[in-house]
């Protein structure tokens, strides 16, 4: 609507808007856009919200079961991404996360198909975790260290097998039992158990 007659409401409105700071006008436009989305597409927000809640509920159920399975065996823990994350966080408190990092690096190394990449990755892993006074040296015996060093001359996907096995055994026999007894894991199991009881009571 436009009108240039004296006393015209539209003219007064235009002058009032022109007198407002630009930031106010921009905020008003932004607010109008957001309100328009809410008023014209309420069903979209409902669908997204419902879907998110369903997915979250599913994840909670799955993670509750997973948490309880971690205590069944060290293998069960290593099979779970969230289990590995929780165990890694625990190892940090003991300043021994390099053992798990080395084990994970070896798992990734085994998937390498390129011979060129295999050799370069092998040297990088050896320098970071295995050699004497490495930045993140893992706790393995001298004999295993030397065997691994010799394996580098003809790097294959199996060249870290012995060192990885020793590190895994160390974590399983030493760190893993302490992790299961830790306050953090005990809290997780209590929450998982209570969610399981709550779920059964509602079915």
What CATH calls the topology of the domain at 62-195 is Regulator of G-protein Signalling 4, domain 2
- Average predicted confidence as pLDDT: 78
Task: Tell me which CATH architecture of the domain at 62-195 applies here.
Answer: Orthogonal Bundle
| Alpha-carbon distance between the two ends | 61 Å
CA radius of gyration: 30 Å
Subcellular location: Membrane
Pfam families: RGS
GO molecular function: GTPase activator activity
Membrane topology: Lipid-anchor
Describe this protein with a few key phrases.
single chain, 203 residues, mainly alpha, Regulator of G-protein Signalling 4, domain 2, 10 helices, 77% helix, elongated, disordered N terminus
What secondary-structure arrangement, pairings included, does this model have?
Blueprint: H1 9-19, H2 22-40, H3 42-69, H4 74-79, H5 81-93, H6 97-110, H7 115-130, H8 142-151, H9 161-181, H10 183-201
Helix pairs in contact: 3-10, 5-6, 6-7, 6-9
């Amino acid at each position: 609507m436009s009108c240039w007659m004296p006393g015209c409401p539209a003219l007064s409105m235009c002058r009032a808007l022109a007198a407002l700071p630009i930031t106010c006008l921009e905020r008003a436009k932004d607010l109008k856009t957001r309100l328009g989305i809410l008023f014209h597409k309420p069903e979209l927000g409902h669908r997204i919200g419902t879907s998110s809640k369903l997915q979250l509920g599913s994840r909670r159920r799955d993670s509750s079961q997973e948490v309880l399975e971690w205590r069944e065996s060290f293998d069960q823990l290593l099979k779970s991404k969230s289990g590995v994350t929780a165990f890694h966080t625990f190892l940090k408190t003991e300043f021994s996360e390099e053992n798990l990092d080395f084990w994970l690096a070896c798992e990734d190394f085994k998937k390498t198909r390129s011979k060129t990449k295999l050799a370069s990755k092998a040297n990088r892993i050896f320098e970071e975790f295995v050699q004497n006074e490495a930045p993140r040296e893992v706790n393995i015996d001298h004999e295993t260290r030397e065997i691994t060093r010799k394996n580098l001359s003809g790097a294959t996907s199996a060249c870290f097998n012995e060192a990885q096995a020793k590190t895994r055994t160390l974590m399983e026999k030493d760190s893993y039992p302490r992790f299961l007894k830790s306050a953090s894991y005990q809290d997780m199991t209590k929450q998982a158990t209570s969610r399981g009881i709550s779920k059964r009571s509602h079915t």
